[in-house]
Design goal:
- This protein is α+β, with helices and mostly antiparallel strands and 113 residues long.
- It has five helices and four strands; from the N terminus they run βαβααααββ.
- A four-stranded mixed β-sheet has the order 2-1-3-4, sandwiched between helices.
- Strand 1, helix 1 and strand 2 form a beta-alpha-beta unit.
- The N and C termini lie close together (11 Å).
Length: 113
């Protein structure tokens, strides 16, 4: 089943959700800000995206700039920073079977439907 890691307060995430709704396919909404994510879950998402953890960071967030910017961090430390501060995770993320994509721009989601 398709999964969308969704932040209802984010315009791009809402646009991505609309694309999924219009596709007519079944999907699961994961409100990760409420549910949280585990290290293994986030690591798995990063692996499916085929990116390094830093590519999933929202670098313009104040939390990133205040606490992490300019520091030498390992991949695990970057993942732990996202778990501690869920707002740092780029969104929306859509997973369909063994493929994943960041929905920025939201039209990217159509590539894996």
């Amino acid at each position: 089943m398709i999964k969308i890691y969704h932040n209802p307060r984010c315009r791009k995430s809402r646009e991505g959700l609309q694309i999924l709704q219009e596709s007519g396919q079944e999907f699961e909404i994961i409100d990760y800000l409420k549910k949280g994510v585990s290290f293994d879950e986030l690591k798995s998402i990063i692996d499916l995206l085929a990116i390094t953890p830093i590519k999933l960071i929202r670098k313009n967030e104040a939390i990133w700039k205040e606490h992490y910017k300019g520091k030498e961090l390992s991949n695990d430390e970057i993942i732990f920073s996202m778990i501690e501060h869920l707002k740092l995770i780029e969104r929306p993320i859509v997973i369909n079977k063994e493929k994943a994509i960041i929905g920025r721009p939201p039209e990217n989601i159509k590539q894996i439907l």
